[in-house]
Structure formats: C-alpha cells, structure tokens
Specification:
alpha/beta; Aldehyde Dehydrogenase, Chain A, domain 1; Aldehyde Dehydrogenase, Chain A, domain 2; 2 domains; 6-stranded mixed beta sheet; 16 helices; 20 strands
Length: 497
C-alpha cells in the first residue's frame, strides 16, 4: 500500500509548470518551451517544467558572474557562510519526507532508500562542507634563494561553476556538487537532468529560504544537447563539474578545450567487479552481491555489475543469490514494501532490455529475470536479471548497462582474478569478499579502482573521496579532496629584505 502523499509535494506538483531559477527569481524559459517529467512507476505526467535553452544558460551565467564579482557570497565572513550551509542541511532533514517522496515519484527509487539514505546523506554533505568553510587555509614556504622572502599560498574560489547532474540520484548529486562549490565561495549554474528535474528546483527554493544571496545558485533544467552543451562551452564559465556517462564526459572535456579551457571534473561510468573468494563469509557476500548490483535498480555508476566468484564456491553462491533475487519485491517506489522500483524512463528500460537480449544472443546462461515483470505494463520495470558463465569478451561483461543486470564470471586464483577484474576501460570501484586480511590488502592494491570495498559495498560518506581511474573520470568528489576542484591556488612572494 502506498504511503500518503505529502501535502507539500502535492502542492508543488499541482502548482503549474515549474519555472527556471535565475538571479533569485522564478522565470519562464526564454523560448517559452516546457517538457514533461514522468512518474516511471505509472508512465503518467508528474509535472511540466520550463525547458531551459542556450539563452537561459547565458542569463544564468550572467547572473552567477554578477553575484561572484560583487562578492555577495564569496566575501561573506566564513563563519556566516558556514551557518548558511549548516542551515541547509538542517532544512533538508526537516523536509525529509517531502524530498524523499519527490525523489521517489520523479526517479522511481524505493521510498525507504530515499528516506534512509539519499536525503540524510544530502543533508550530511551540506553540514560536512559547512565545517570546511572556516578552514580553507593557505600555507607558507621556506624559500632557498639568496635574500629574504615571504612566500605563502591562498586558496581562492574559481568563480562561476557549471554543474551538470544525472538522473539516478538527483538530490544527492546536487548536494555533492553544490555544497563544496558554495563552501569555497563560488557561484553556480546547476543543470539537472531533464528526466528528474524536480528535486533540484525544490532545493533552489530551500537555498533561497536559507538566505543564499540572489544569483549565487541558478537552476536551469533543460536538454543535455542544448542547455548542457551551452554550459560546457560557455566562455564565461570557469569550471564545469559533470556526473554521467563516459561518452558525454568526453564531449564535456572537448567543449572545455575548444572554448576557454575551463577547469573540468568528471565522475563517469563504471563496470565494477564484485569479487567473492572461497574463504568469504558467503552469507554476507551473497547479500553484498545482491545489494551491489540491484540497489537503485542497478542505475548506479558503481554498481557491482561483474560478479567474480571463485570456482570452488561458484555454484553455491549463485544458488543462494537466486533465492534472494526470486524473493525481491518489485513495485512502485512509493510503496514502502517495495525493494526494487522501476527504471527511470522508457528509454532506459528499452536500453536494459536490449542488453539482456544481447546477453542471450552471445550465449551467456540466463538464470534469473530476463524481461519485464507481470502486472506492471504501465511502468518501466525490469526483473532483476542474472547471467551465469559470462565470458569477459561479451558486451554484457564490457559495457555499462546501468540497470538490474549482473554478469557472473568464475575465476581460479588471485592472479587470474586480478587480470580479469582489471580488463575494463573503467576503474570506479571494486568489492572484495574474503576472511584473509592479507589477501584483502593485496587484491585492493592490485585492482585499478578509485574505491575498493572489503566485505561491504556502496558505503559512501561525505568524508570519503569519490572518483575513478581510467575512463571513470577526472578528480575526486567528497572529503577535503573536493575543495581542490573548486579552488584556485595562488602563490604570493614578498621581498621582505
């Protein structure tokens, strides 16, 4: 049974077409165009949203530039900026039900995931970076040249930051981008995905209520190929931060190089190995394998989509995994008993079903799922799907599917495992399940991944760095590392002789 709709959410959705947020005002798109955002559980329209175009991005960038040049935010005393960011975190907690329901309706994620993970972590991210505002210190250097010199560094905000966030964790990705950028004193133009624009618009409302000055944060929903492309190539944007596919990430990098060589950080795709050794606690490992791939319907850049299992326990592990898969409760995310909701859109559903067909065509052994569940024809649902005996050259083992599909691959020993696990263009995360502490460290060091989980998976905290090797991106979000993404380092050398 679905939980009662929050009155604030109902009011927000029924309040007419959602507008762009530019310069502290809610405005129509310059071209007057709108688009529909869809509830993926039903296929019905949730709301109409103003569709920002290139002219709207120009307006938003100009607004951000004015606010930055005037210093309305960056010159605010650090303790005051910290108070504002902490207040944003508190307001997210106070409105947790509202944000969680909006995420669920717009994205499809189970409501319990939104309430227990997404909203609390978004709030914690703002509070974490509130703590950094007063600690953005420089350093002094001892100069060895003849004479007397004082050398010191300053960490200064970059300026106008463009941020493009994905549809899989809309609120959380907005927090990961906005909080460190604001902590460092920047002004921002945020472009949410056209699939899930609503929580970004609601957080703009919240930031205004928290008294973030006008123009410091601007939110412009729009198509990636129009609004996103303009933001990435804009000559007055000093830095672009993007989370999404590797293919689009390359376009972002190219747009930067061909415009003003703006700073770029990219959090991109993955084809992450989740590795089960024979000596692992198999009950925990099976649970971790299930969670690693089917959390958020597999729509996670760090999804453990390649399940490597040592030959000795391969059959047993898959048998136990199938028991869990077959007990999975599929349904609308708004229903509190749902464990796995719909995919975000019909396009994404069709993409995932296409990969399942490809897996069958290539000869992988389908042992669970493989299509749409009965009784959910209106929504974008796909059964949790398990392929066994997958060859590393198959497309389902090489390409990011971004859905509830796992490729199980047997391995013999550590050397065999490391070679197979590293045989990918990606390098975002990996998981290792073993009782042998020496093996855990050896394998963690050998894997080409930005994060290696040992006897756990999908553990994320504002303090831990997030990013990948290879084609999984550039730079690290979260922790103190994100501060480097949003500051310039200035050296001052003074002759004091």
């Amino acid at each position: 049974m679905a939980i009662a709709e929050d009155l604030e959410v109902a009011s927000f959705l029924k309040g007419g077409p959602k507008k762009l947020f530019i310069g502290g005002r809610w405005v129509e798109a310059a071209g007057g165009e709108t688009f529909e955002t869809i509830d993926p559980a039903t296929g019905e329209v949730l709301a109409r949203v103003a569709e920002g175009g290139a002219e709207d991005i120009d307006r938003a960038v100009a607004s951000a530039r004015r606010s930055f040049d005037r210093g309305t935010w960056r010159e605010l005393p650090p303790a005051e900026r910290a108070k504002v960011l902490w207040k944003v975190g508190d307001m997210l907690d106070e409105r947790a039900n509202e944000f969680a329901q909006l995420e669920t309706l717009d994205n499809g994620m189970p409501i319990n995931d939104a309430l227990l993970f997404h909203v609390p972590l978004a709030a914690a991210t703002f509070r974490y970076y509130a703590g950094w505002v007063t600690k953005l210190d420089g350093a002094t250097q001892q100069v060895s040249l003849p004479g007397k010199y004082l050398s010191y560094t300053l960490r200064e905000p970059i300026g106008v930051v463009g941020q493009i966030i994905p549809w899989n964790f809309p609120l959380l990705m907005a927090a990961w981008k906005l909080a460190p950028a604001l902590a460092c004193g920047n002004s921002v133009v945020l472009k949410p995905s056209e699939e899930t624009p609503l929580s970004a618009l609601l957080i703009a409302e919240l930031l205004q209520q928290a008294e973030v000055p006008d123009g410091v944060v601007n939110v412009v929903p729009g198509r990636g190929e129009v609004a996103g492309a303009r933001l990435a190539s804009h000559p007055d944007v000093d830095k672009i931060a993007f989370t999404g596919s590797t293919e689009v990430g390359k376009l972002i990098a190219r747009a930067s190089s061909e415009s003003n060589l703006k700073r770029v950080s990219l959090e991109l795709g993955g084809k992450s190995p989740n590795i089960v050794f024979a000596d692992a606690d198999l009950t925990r490992a099976v649970s971790g394998a299930f969670f690693g791939i089917f959390f958020n319907q597999g729509q996670v850049c760090s999804a453990g989509s390649r399940l490597f299992v040592q030959e000795k326990v391969y059959d047993h592990t898959l048998d136990e995994l199938l028991k869990t898969v077959n007990e999975t409760r599929i349904g609308p995310g708004i229903d509190p008993v749902t464990q796995m909701g719909p995919l975000v859109s019909r396009t994404q559903m069709d993409r995932v079903l296409g990969y399942i067909a490809q897996g069958n065509k290539e000869g992988a052994r389908l042992i669970a799922g493989g299509g749409r569940p009965e009784g959910f024809d209106a929504g974008y649902f796909v059964k949790p799907t398990v392929f066994a005996d997958v060859d590393g050259d198959m497309r389902i083992a090489r390409e990011e599917i971004f859905g509830p599909v796992v490729a199980a691959i047997p391995f013999s020993d550590e050397e065999d495992l490391v070679a197979k696990a590293n045989s990918t263009i990606y390098g975002l995360v990996a998981g290792v399940w073993t009782r042998d502490v020496g093996r855990a460290h050896r394998v963690a060091h050998a894997l080409k991944a930005g994060t290696v989980y040992v006897n756990c998976y999908h553990i994320v905290d504002p303090v831990t760095p997030w990013g990948g090797y290879r084609q999984s991106g550039w730079g690290r979000e979260l922790g103190p590392y994100a501060l480097d993404l949003y500051t310039e380092l200035k050296n001052v050398i003074v002759d004091i002789g």
